Amino acid sequence: MSIRPKILVTSAAGHTGAAAVSQLLSMGFPVRAFVRRRDARATALEQAGAEIFVGDLFDYRDLRDAMVGVQRAYHCPPFSPSVLHGTMLFAVAAEEAKLEVVALMSQWNPHATHPSIVTRGHWLSNQIYRWMPSVDVIHINPGLFAFIYLFGLPAMAHFGIFMAPFGEGLNAPPSNEDIARVATGVLSDPAPHIGKSYRPTGPHLISPQDIAGTLGKVLGRKVAYKDVPFKTFSKAAIAQGLPLSDLAHFRYYAEELRNGAFAIGGPTDHVLEVSGRAPEDFESIARRYTQDPSLIHPALKIGSKLEAIAFLFKMLATRPADLDAWERARGYPLLNDPALAQDSPEWRATAARKKLNLLPGTQPAMLDLETVA
Fold it and tell me: Is residue 234 included in any domain, yes or no?
């Protein structure tokens, strides 16, 4: 009887990490789940059969220890301005441990001159991971996840309002579980996928109006979409506890959604291609996530109408943040003339081919042949 390789999953209590752990365990793989703290989510993973490793993804000592006895890894970097620092630490540790393969979580929109330091960090990481001499890499680069549309669930449930700064932007939002299916699919049998990139999507391009209609059906009431300025959206997000570090970058993604960046190259058939299962539609995702809002955010609850009204007053009293000043104060390497994804000719060209934005010199020969063909 052959022994299956042990697989390390980072951010294992997160949106795609927890789903990946569950799926790998169901396939019979031994899994080491890297978590920040031993909480209820970590306990649930342990009870499911995972080996729990508590550590800091920015501490090389923890990364080195976490990889002892591991052959493959799904690395899902935390959403952080230090993403490049963290992914490089992981790459060095993976080389030292001589892992067979790493499935690296990235984004759909990285390119060299993006205004978000997080997204530029992903772009740099994607290039440098190709240089690892002995570890193979497979890229997972989804766009905006389905759960992003559900942060305002209490207002939808109690007031029938879906407020977001998305215009009429089209997207094919994937579920956490479908993204994980692509990651676990390539790790369970890496050979056909080495050097490739996959963009998991839902089955259809849908608009915020479509989202509102679907949520009305799921919640059993009329839900209307209201396009709002990002400043208004940010007040609600800050009142809800979303960190400024997330908002500072999400404002760019909202603008890209408004301007069609997430519609380019979508939808893909990558979920079906890798996992053998068709991707979930948004209604299926919304029904499951509204029944268990912790799948959207661990602290999110629909709550009572009185609580929703109290939150509305809290939002109105919240001052919007000056996100430009916030970024400058942290000494980020900000560009004088950045370009959002849809404004980058290089990014648009690769996106139209459903490819990750990689420099030609970092593409393996097999991908070059694919492009020529």
Answer: yes
